[in-house]
Amino acid sequence: MRIPFPVRAPYPRTRMRRNRRDDWTRRLVAETRLSPSDLIWPVFVHDEREARAAIPSLPGVHRLSISAFVDAVGRARALGIPLVAAFPVIRPELKSELAEEAVNAENVVCRAVTAAKEAYPDVGIMCDVALDPFTSHGHDGLMRDGEIINDETVALLCRQAIVQAAAGCDVIAPSDMMDGRVGAVREALDAAGYGHVRILSYAAKYASALYGPFRDAIGSAPNLGRGDKRTYQMDPANSDEALHEVALDLAEGADMVMVKPGLFYLDIVRRVKDAFGVPTCVYQVSGEYAMLRAAAANGWLDWDRVIMESLLACKRAGADAILTYAAVEIAERLR
Ligand code: PBG
C-alpha cells in the first residue's frame, strides 16, 4: 500500500510520540474501537439438569442447561451483545450415522432457541447448520464408503435449517463447507416462509488444528478420532481460494460471511473485506481462546490485556463482528 500523504517534516519536527503521550490523545487518534455491538457470543447448550458444566479445555466456558441458556441470552441483552450462537451438545446415544437428531424439531438446540426467543425476542439467535454435533462419526456431512457425500448432505442441511428457523432462529450459519449449501439453504428457507432469516456463511473456513476444545465441548472429538476434515474445509496454505469461496457464497445469497479461525487468518479477513466490502465476521475459535487462557493461567500473559488486544486485532483487520467465548467479559469491561 502507498502511504497516502508525503512525510514532509522529519524528526525532530515530526515526533510521532506526541500523540501517544497522554491517554486522551491516544483515545482521540485511535483508529479502531471495540464495542459490545461487535460481539457474537457462542454458547454450548446441553440437555441435562445441571445448569453449568465446566469444559476442561475451555476454562471459563460452560455447557449450559436450556434454562441457563435463556438466562445467558438475557445477560447478552443487558450487555448490548446483539447475537448469541447456540451450539448443541448431543447425548452420545442420540448421535447416529445419518444424523437424524439434526432434523428433530424437538432437539435440544431447537428447544433452547424457542425458549430464548420467548423470553428475549429482541436478541438475535444464530444456529450452525452442520451435522457434526449429531453424527456418530463426528463429521459435518453424511459419509458413504469413507467419503463425505456432498449433495445428500446439502439436502439434509436444508431440512436442519428449516427446523431451526421454525424454532425461531434468526441467523442460519452453514459451517459445513459443502458445495452449494448456501444457495440450497436460501431456497429452502424462502420456500418454507422464512425469507427474513439471515444466512451468515462460514465462507472461508479452514481445516484448522484450533478447533480441538470445541470438539471436546460438543463431544465430537472421540467420534472423529484421528479423522480430519481436509476434504471439505480449506487448506491453510490458500488465500485466493478464500475469495473464491466468499464470492460463491455471496452469489448464492449469503447476507454475511465469516472467516475462521481468526488470529492465524487475519490476512484473509483483510482481503475479504477489501475485495467485497460486505459484512464480514471472524470467529476467534476455541483453540485461540484456550491458548491465551492457558498462557495466562501460567502467569505468562496478562489475560485482560491479551484478550482485548486479540479482539482489537480482528477489528483492525477488517472484521465487522467477532465470535468470541470472551464476549460477556469483554462487553462488561467495555460498559
Ligand atoms: C462445526 C463447527 C466447528 C466449529 C464451529 N462449528 C468445528 C469443526 O468444524 O470441526 C469450531 C469452533 C471453535 O473451535 O470454537 N462445523
Entry keywords:
eight-stranded parallel beta barrel; single chain; binds ligand PBG; 39% helix; TIM Barrel; two-stranded antiparallel sheet; alpha/beta; 335 residues; 12 helices
Walk me through what this model shows.
With 335 residues, the chain is α/β, with parallel strands linked by helices. It has a single domain (35-334), classed as Aldolase class I (TIM Barrel, Alpha-Beta Barrel). 39% of the residues lie in helices and 17% in strands. The protein is built from twelve helices and twelve strands. The protein has helices at 23-29, 66-79, 108-119, 150-167, 181-191, 212-218, 221-224, 240-251, 266-276, 286-297, 303-316, 327-334, and strands at 39-46, 52-54, 62-64, 83-89, 124-129, 142-144, 147-149, 171-174, 198-205, 256-260, 280-283, 321-323. The chain has an eight-stranded parallel β-barrel, surrounded by eight helices. Helix 3 (108-119) packs parallel to helix 4 (150-167), helix 4 (150-167) packs across helix 5 and helix 8 packs across helix 9. The longest helix has 18 residues, at 150-167. It is globular and about 70 Å long. It starts with 22 loop residues before the first helix and ends with a helix. The mean pLDDT is 97. Ligand PBG binds at residues 128, 130, 132, 140, 175-176, 211, 214-215, 229, 285-286.
